[in-house]
Amino acid sequence: MTPRFPRLLTGVGTLRRVGRAAKSLGGHRALVVTDPGVEAAGHSARVVGHLELAGFEVALHAGVHSNPTTQDVLAALEVMNAFRPDLLVSVGGGSAMDTAKAANMLFTNGGEIADYRGRSTPATPLLPSIAIPTTAGTGSEVQSFALIADAETHRKMACAAPGAVPDIAILDPVLTLSLPREITAHTGLDALVHSVETAVCTARDAGSSALSTEAFVKIVTHLPRVLEDPEDLDARDAMLLGSMKAGMAIERSMLGAAHAMANPLTANHGIPHGLAVGMLIPHVIRFNAAERPAAAIYARLVRSAGLRRSRSHAVLAEHLADHIQELVRDCGKKTTLKEWGVAQSDVPALAEDAHTQWTAQFNPRPVDVAGFEALYAAATSL
């Protein structure tokens, strides 16, 4: 089944259209879901102002944490139960958008968030929603998935429902100007790895492959520009579009081993997700490129972006791995697993956890526990 994607409002200044966009969805009570950083930057206040001018009664929930857990979802649900909104507006990175989606599932259909793990089909339609990303990273604004960690076990759950895809996504690059360089780098790496993993995963199709390539070219070209000049709005706009296309590719396909390996690192060692996948993907590329189909796809990505010319798929795949490693080094301090305190003694437990992650099964080259151990060991020895 072809996924449903949001209506897109893109470009500088599009945030001012949120009131009109909200009115097109009906209703009169809007809950804005965000995090403290976005609130401090003033973005959520601007959204609230535009919605109120459009005639909405508005409530604000700004308590979402990074890497949201079931507790974050329950906190948002408590606000929803008290305010009884008929529209949700999420403003922020993937954490705010995913929390809003998960709370929407529980508000409309009840149960626990674990009930929605995988691709669920709730009986009751979800509330209409608008997503406004402030980072160019997750692509959550075009996905039905919400990534939520169990508050006790810290194990991440990918929870999805068809109606969780936002009805409208507003991509205004001005909102990303307030991001610190480190977060810009980490979220950009996340988007880049999305484009690489969706390109080779076993669930890919012609549509997702085209989106992966478009996303990769935009991100690998413009991430260095944004890191060099944070005020470059054209580059930031391209990053938002690239992140969004990578998100669409995820919705049509899936991810792979790098994301399976990153989740345990974030849960157990506090490594930011985008940096974790960025550090891991070069090793996964080399592992997958031992098989010709994956090497050919990696080569296509390199050629599409004009990074290097060669007839050898193996040479181009290795260049891709090297190129991403250089990007990670450009992102700032603490860019190796060693610097984050990961030791070889941690590898067996990490590998066992990675092997249970949902995305692991979509990697183009099957990875067993021993394979994950070898990948972690390679990444940890640097």
List keywords for this structure.
single chain, 382 residues, alpha/beta, Rossmann fold, Dehydroquinate synthase-like, alpha domain, six-stranded parallel β-sheet, three-stranded mixed β-sheet, 14 helices, 52% helix
Describe this structure in words.
This protein is of the alpha/beta class and 382 residues long. The chain has 2 domains: 170 residues, Rossmann fold, CATH 3.40.50.1970; 200 residues, Up-down Bundle (Dehydroquinate synthase-like, alpha domain), CATH 1.20.1090.10. It has 14 helices and 9 strands. The strands form 2 sheets. The protein has a 6-stranded parallel β-sheet with strand order 1-9-6-4-2-3, sandwiched between helices. Strands 5-8-7 form a 3-stranded mixed β-sheet. Strand 7 and strand 8 form a beta hairpin. Helix 6 runs parallel beside helix 8, helix 9 packs across helix 13 and helix 10 packs antiparallel against helix 12. The radius of gyration is 20 Å and the shape is globular.
